[in-house]
Each structure stands twice: as structure tokens, then as C-alpha cells.
Amino acid sequence: MTNVIKKKPIIWTISGSDCSGGAGIAADIKTGHGLGVEVCHLITANTVQNSQQLVSVNAVSVELLQQQVDVLIDDKTPSVIKIGLVANAEQVQWLAELLGQLKQSNPNLLSVYDPVGQASVGGSFNALSSTDLTPLLKQLDVITPNLNEAKSLAGLLNENTAALLAQKIYQNFGITSVIVKGGHSADEKFSNDYCYHQLNQLSAAKQDNQDKTQMAISYQLASSRIDTHYSHGGGCSFATALSAFLAQGYLMRDAFTLAKAFITQGLMASEPLSQENGHQYYGAFEQQGWPKKAKCFPQVISELANKYQELPTFKPLALNGEQLGLYPVIDSLYWLKRLLPLGLEIIQLRIKNVTNEQLERIIVEAIEFAKDYKTRLFINDYWQLAIKHGAYGVHIGQEDLQDADLAAIQQAGLRLGISTHGCYEFLLAQQLQPSYLAIGAIFPTKTKDMTGQIQGIDNLKQVLALRPTEKSQQIPVVAIGGISLERAPKVLATGVESIAVVTAITEAESSHGITPEHAVVQLQNAISAEAIEVLQH
Ligand SMILES: Cc1ncc(COP(=O)(O)OP(=O)(O)O)c(N)n1
Ligand SMILES: Cc1nc(C(=O)O)sc1CCOP(=O)(O)O
Ligand SMILES: [Mg+2]
């Protein structure tokens, strides 16, 4: 996520009104308000429908819609525009021009389109083909079709693979993020959603001549299918939830994960109601606010988790009841030799920009030197050298995770720490059962560029809630990034087992006029069990 936003973000929903209250504008307003954004709503059509049938769609004129835009644009400026039901070709053209204009004045504006074509009770909301919709589709940043809608947008009616459909939709229309929802797929056990996403391009001006398969990444999330009759408006709610999370600065992978958790949470809540009512009933999806419980969150499907699914849990840190506490991350033998005598439980050697020859020599000397101390020495990045020279553990970042041989690290008996930044990466890394998980960057830091990935305390708490409730099954968590002496107690009070710091120690002289050794003692005192107990009361 980006820096904590103080003012409530605003989203607009441009969509139809469903008089039965399940879908459309009603769902969008309930969803958005429950998730902490303001929602302005521009109604494209008044529909006449109930839980059995769609009777009519009564389009609103583009002149009226434009008047609403004119009064709102400076007063309630949106950061995301969510589009649902588009009633006719005139509205397609108007929306395409509107998005084009608004993006010129605000290149960070995002547009999310949830195609609303067929009513789930039967009947069509409009007679628009993909070709008719093309001017609008070419202006979008995000689209959230179900499998059937994806087939038609991709022009591949016999294709069932979400990955291929999403890629084709991107190629056809240049939409940066394509989420194919699996809610209507044939899989009876799981509902799998797939997101094809162009990195760094969300909200950026579209560049037609760029290689359209470059820098693409995909995310896949699975949840158990839930049998409930209260699902009317689930699709609208998903797209609006996604919009609300994006408006609050979450990256696509986390907004996608949170939106799916939001849907699962609502479906779970209505399961008992569904059992009480007969089979014919079609009730409104239940919007339940911010998803917090681990049981609502999806499983991350990834090649990595698949590859290592048989790998046993990594060795624990063997703390024998001690608190992990302060975790200095240092970049040289000089710092290692200065800090090891201070009786720390854990330390990390994070070397950057040295030659291979120097690197091996430094790592060998560090491991040799650390042998005389109880402190657990983790080597950042260089897992082969850590194995070769018998370090206590290795710390691996997300970028290196794909290439690292986790089985080799485990067979060599090393502990493993993994960096995560937000709920998606945390859920993925948790499946690998490392010795600890790091979450960062909690605050802005000058040690490393963490733009767009600043978590804040609230997000840290939310991610911590994704651990199993049973304490003995929880993997210890280390918080990192911008943690100072002043901020340390608040961070530890969230329930993390450790705080990792670089500059709070290495720059203690200039920031606080104290020696690094003194900073270590002060930080240890600030996060001692006693200090945290005082803070929690
Ligand atoms: C405890 C801890 N957490 C996170 C990191 C960051 O590791 P990584 O993502 O590998 O980034 P670099 O440190 O290599 O820049 C860490 N080192 N330690
Ligand atoms: C090395 C590092 N990794 C981070 C992550 O979030 O993964 S934040 C970070 C920098 C930590 O330095 P400081 O304590 O000086 O802010
Ligand atoms: Mg690293």
C-alpha cells in the first residue's frame, strides 16, 4: 500500500439501479461505505426487476449524467470510477469520452468496469456486443468479467482457461488488469479467480506501441465454493470492493485478495439464512465490511507453493521461551563485530555492492566470528554461500524467492526468513512454512526504495490476523522498515515477535546523539515485555 491516506478517498459508481435492492448501485453504495470510501453514484438506468425476472431497463439520458459529472467533479473528485450497467451505445460513447478527458487532467485516476450484460435471472440488460463496447473498453484500467463474459470479450467462445482469456482481453483492448472470476465456472468445489496484471502500468497513460506481453504478472486465488441463495449483487460488490481497496492505495495483488475475502465473508455470513429459506429464493449479497478473519481469505495458488507443497516446515528459531526482540540488519563485518557482543537473539548480514570474491570472504568471516556468540546469524540473499559455509539461516526477498532452492536450504538444516509486503505475499509465504516471516515496510524508510509498499500499523495488524489462531501454529513475524526508537513500542504492541532495524542503530549518533550500542539497549528496553504491557493498558 501507499502512504496512509488520512482523508476518505472517493469513488464514483456509474451503474444501474436495481429496484429489488440486490445488485447495481445499491450493492455498490453498501460495499463502498462499509470499506471506508465515500461513494458518489450516477445512475445509468432504472431497471424493473425482482428475484425472478428482469422486466425492463430504462436508460437515463447522457445529458443528465453529464450534469451530475459537472457538479461532482471538483466537489467530490474520484480516485476510482467503477462502471457497471451501461444501457446503450450513446452511454458507451459518453463514458469513453468522459474517461479520456478525466484521465488527461488526472493520470492517476483508475477505471474499473464490471461487465453487466446478462441478468442472472435471465434476460439482457443491453444489446451491446464487444465491438459496440470497444471505445469504452480501450479506456479502462481494470475489468472484472466472469468466465462467459471473458470468452466473449476475448472472442474465444470455446476457451475455458482463464489465463488465456485474460491475456487475450489485454491484447484486444489494452486493459492493464483483467480479473476473470470463477464464480460461474463448472468447478463444484472451488471458486478460482485469476488476475492478469501489467506491472507499473495501472493508471499510466496507455502506450499502444509497447510490447503488450512485457512485464505481465498473474495472481490466482482460490476459495471453497459456498452454497447460498443470497448472492444477488456479488459481482457488483466484488468490483466495487476492488475499487475501494485500490482507492485506498492497495496494490492490485492486495486489493484483489481483499476483494475476494470480502465476497467469501459475505457468502459465509448468509449460509445459515440460505438453509432456512427454500431453494427458489434469490436474496441480496450480504456486505459485511472490512474482511478481517483468516477463514475468509483465499488460498494463493502459485507455482512456488505448488513446487514446495511436500516440503516439511522449516526448522523453528528455537527460542526456548525467549522473546526474539530486536533484529539488527547490518551491512558489514565492522557492524557485526561491534554488535555481536551485545547479547542479541538474532542479527542479519545484508551485504550489497561487493565483488563475488569479497562477498565469500566476508560471509566466511562473519559465520566464523558469530560462532562464539549465541546470536542467530542470518545471511541476506546469498543462500548458496550461506549453505556452503554453514550459516544459522538465510533471509530471502520476494524477488529471489523464485530462484532460490528452498529444498536445498532446508536439507542443509538452515533456518529461513522470507520478506512479505501485504496480505497477498504473506498468504503465499505462509504456505512455505519458513522459520519467520517479515512484513514491511511499516513506515517510509530511506534505506531502501519501498514506494507503494508502506504498510502502516493498521495494515500490519490486518496481516497478522491472517495467521492461524492457534499460537503454537503461528510463524513468528518480524516487522521492518522505518522503525525508530520512538515507533518501536507501538509496532511491537501489534503482536509481532520482533522488530528489524537498520538506521535506528547505524545512524543513532546523528539522529539521537547516542552510540549505536546505547541505541541497541534503548531499543531493547523500549520493546521489552514490561514496556509493551504498560503500552497495552
Ligand atoms: C528482517 C528482514 N525483512 C525484510 C528484509 C528485506 O529483504 P529483501 O526483500 O531480500 O530485500 P533486501 O534486504 O535484499 O534489499 C530484510 N533484509 N530483513
Ligand atoms: C531492508 C529493508 N527491507 C524492507 C522491507 O520492507 O522488506 S524495509 C528495509 C529497510 C529497513 O531499514 P530502516 O530500518 O533503516 O528503515
Ligand atoms: Mg534480499
UniProtKB/TrEMBL annotation:
InterPro entries: Aldolase_TIM, HMP/HMP-P_kinase_dom, PM/HMP-P_kinase-1, Ribokinase-like, ThiamineP_synth_sf, ThiamineP_synth_TenI, TMP_synthase. Residues 332-505 form the Thiamine phosphate synthase/TenI domain. Keywords: ATP-binding, Kinase, Magnesium, Metal-binding, Multifunctional enzyme, Nucleotide-binding, Thiamine biosynthesis, Transferase. Pathway: Cofactor biosynthesis; thiamine diphosphate biosynthesis; thiamine phosphate from 4-amino-2-methyl-5-diphosphomethylpyrimidine and 4-methyl-5-(2-phosphoethyl)-thiazole: step 1/1. It catalyses: 4-methyl-5-(2-phosphooxyethyl)-thiazole + 4-amino-2-methyl-5-(diphosphooxymethyl)pyrimidine + H(+) = thiamine phosphate + diphosphate; 2-(2-carboxy-4-methylthiazol-5-yl)ethyl phosphate + 4-amino-2-methyl-5-(diphosphooxymethyl)pyrimidine + 2 H(+) = thiamine phosphate + CO2 + diphosphate; 2-[(2R,5Z)-2-carboxy-4-methylthiazol-5(2H)-ylidene]ethyl phosphate + 4-amino-2-methyl-5-(diphosphooxymethyl)pyrimidine + 2 H(+) = thiamine phosphate + CO2 + diphosphate. Its cofactor is Mg(2+). Its EC number is 2.5.1.3. 2-[(2R,5Z)-2-carboxy-4-methylthiazol-5(2H)-ylidene]ethyl phosphate binds at residues 445-447, 482, 502-503. It is an enzyme of class 2 (transferase). The keyword Kinase applies. Binds 1 Mg(2+) ion per subunit. Residues 18-277 form the Pyridoxamine kinase/Phosphomethylpyrimidine kinase domain. Mg(2+) binds at residues 381, 400. It holds the Pfam family TMP-TENI. 4-amino-2-methyl-5-(diphosphooxymethyl)pyrimidine binds at residues 348-352, 380, 419, 448. Belongs to the thiamine-phosphate synthase family. Condenses 4-methyl-5-(beta-hydroxyethyl)thiazole monophosphate (THZ-P) and 2-methyl-4-amino-5-hydroxymethyl pyrimidine pyrophosphate (HMP-PP) to form thiamine monophosphate (TMP). PANTHER family: HYDROXYMETHYLPYRIMIDINE_PHOSPHOMETHYLPYRIMIDINE KINASE THI20-RELATED (PTHR20858:SF17), PHOSPHOMETHYLPYRIMIDINE KINASE (PTHR20858). This is Thiamine-phosphate synthase. The gene is thiE.
